[in-house]
Structure formats: C-alpha cells, structure tokens
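Subject: for your reference before the review

Hello V.,

The reviewers asked for a structural picture of the protein, and I figured it would be easier to keep everything in one thread rather than splitting it across files. Below is the amino acid sequence we used in the manuscript, unchanged from the supplementary table.
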Amino acid sequence: MEADDEGRSPSGSVVVDLASADDPRAMSRMLRQQRVHTIEGMFHLLTRREDVEAALRKPAVYTSRPEAVQLGNIRPLIPLSVDPPKHVKYRRILDPLFAPKHMAALEDEVVTLVNQIVDRFAAKGSCDFHEDFAVPLPCTVFLRLMGLPLADLDMFLEMKDGIIRPPGATQEEQEPTRRRTAQNIYAYFEKTLAERRRAPTDDLLAQIMGSSVDGVQLTDEEILDICFLFIIAGLDTVTDSLDCIFGYLSQEPEHRRQLASDESVIPSAIEELLRWESPVPAVPRVLSEDVEVGGCPMKAGEHVMLLIGAANTDDAAHPGVDSVDLLRNPNPHLAFGGGVHRCLGSHLARIELRVAVREWHKRIPEYELVPGTVLQYTEGLRSLHHLPLTFAPAG
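And here is what came back from the structure prediction:
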C-alpha cells in the first residue's frame, strides 16, 4: 500500500497500523468517522463495531480462504484458513482439546512456572518484561503442552518471527524469508511426526495425531497444517497480550493498585485490557460475492480488513468503551474474534493471563517504566520490542 506524505493512499483513505500506533484509540476514533476506507481501489477497511461484527458472523461472504492470509504456507492453515462446512470438522476435533476444563487443569503448572521465572530477576529490582517474562512464559507452557523440547525454543522463536515479522519493508521483500521459514517448519514437523509414530507420547500433539471424525483420522498433511498455525499462534499472541497489559499497567498506577489489592478484579481486568489494547487489532478476509457497506461497493475477490481494535472502542455501539473500567461487566469485546473463527486458544490464553497477572502482583505489586523509556510497539500484532521495568527488589 503506497501513501503520500500525509499518510493517505491514492484513493484518499488513511493507511494505518493500529498495532504500532502510540495511541491506537485516537487513530480508531479518526477511522470510525468513515465506515469503510478503500485503499488502492480494492482493499477495504471496516471500522465500526456493527460492520465488523456482522462480517465476522458471515463467513460464507467474508471468507478466510487461504489468500486472505499468506504466511509462506503451501496449504491452508487449519482451522484458520478453512471456512464452513469443512471448518466444522476441524473444530469438532480441536475445540474439545482446548476446552475450559482441560485448560483449567494447567493452572497449578502455570503458577509454578510464573514464580520460577520471577525468581530469576525479582532480587535485581528490574527486568525487561518482554524478554524476561512475556516471551518465556507462554512459550514454555505451549511447548510443554505440545510435548516439544524446550531446548528448541530459540529455533521456534526464530521460525515464528520469520513468519510474523520477517525483515523487509514490503510484502515482496518479506516473502523470501517467509517461504524459507515455512519450509523449515514443515520439515521440522514432518520429522517430529515420524519420531512420534516410532515412539508414541502422551501430549497435545499425540491427541491431535490420534484424532478422527466419523471414523476418519486426520492425514499427515492436515496435522502439519495444524502444527504450522499452532507454532505461530502459540508462541506469539499471549506474549503480545502480556506486553500490552503490563505496558498499560506500568503507566497507570491507579489501575495497577486496584487489581493488585483485590484478586477478584483480575478476571474482568484481563477482559477489559484485552479489549482496550486489542493485541490482534485486525483480521483479514476475502469477499466471495459483491457487497455494499455504508454506500461503499466492494467486489467479490477483494480483500477486507476487519479492524477489531477500532470496533472494540466504538462508543456508538457500546457507550463508555472509550475509557478503561477494570470492573466492566458485561464486556462483549472482540479481542478473540467472533463467529465460527473465534480464537481456538482463548481459554488457554485466559488461564495464562490471569495466573500471570495474579502471581506477578503478589510478588511485585509496585513497578513502573524505567525513567526515560519510550515504548515502541510492533507492526501487525501489537507487542513490544522491549518493556524495561523497575521495582523494589522482591523475594
């Protein structure tokens, strides 16, 4: 997408990235003044809650077919790039594996892990929250869940970044790294599946390998396509959420003390900060037919970006959502998406986030940004390059 010096596309629409914006809420308010922004004549942004939510609930029209998301993969990512009715087959297999009761059973393990990680820097009185906590916590949880070796973590992180944040300013410049990384991911899991067949294990990957629908087991290609998506999503989105939540709390002592002094606030606070920050600020779709939104015609085959972040702070749809209320209830946010493609791992994410916030604030209730820090958020998915915190040395 090319833009002029004012940050506008040739069609006059503003080119935006809510993820890296210093204040995505202000950008969202500006965007919502117009229901649809059209870029280069065939790429559309939906900005308002009613339109984003309606699109999420019409997967036959706003499709998730493979061209919506190109991450170097050679086949559709399962279940992300598969629409109903086939999508239902995969969710029937995967949803029970990530059901709330199964994820809740991980809580004690996550508690132990959080405290082990905090032990590494608590006595120093400082840390880079992103590198020291937000990366290792969810990555360790996920790799243990999948039964993958923790010794390979650096390799997995390199793979994840090679797909989500490859070097290069344009899609064309990024594509070679994505393709090369994708080949490495397929090769790794092809080898892993072969090893698991020789020596079966008891973990999430083993459950996926043994899954079937109506007596038909998943093929190796289907398992590879699930693993490709899992290694990307499982190693990044909770890290992004932790960065966003603690980045906010480090600058808002009143809200930080509110949840630190009362654990019962934490579940609703997590939901509110997920809404406010929207770590996944947009999701892509491809139109299967011609539609019109707000007088703007959009053609079959054109790409549409659903601005989750803008929808989550749309005061016209839900009065009061242009400010933070840690006790907000109900809180029908779209941080985990909506409709049939709602985030598969949302229950796992909630367990990790609630435990992380609770156990951290037991140990380190008072903290702040290192003086002089200017936070820099990443593009695409809202995360931080660094989050340097300072606090009184803790035990």
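For the response letter, the relevant points are probably these. Residues 259 and 266 are 6 Å apart (CA to CA). Residues 171-198 form the longest helix (28 residues).

Happy to draft the paragraph if you're swamped.

O.
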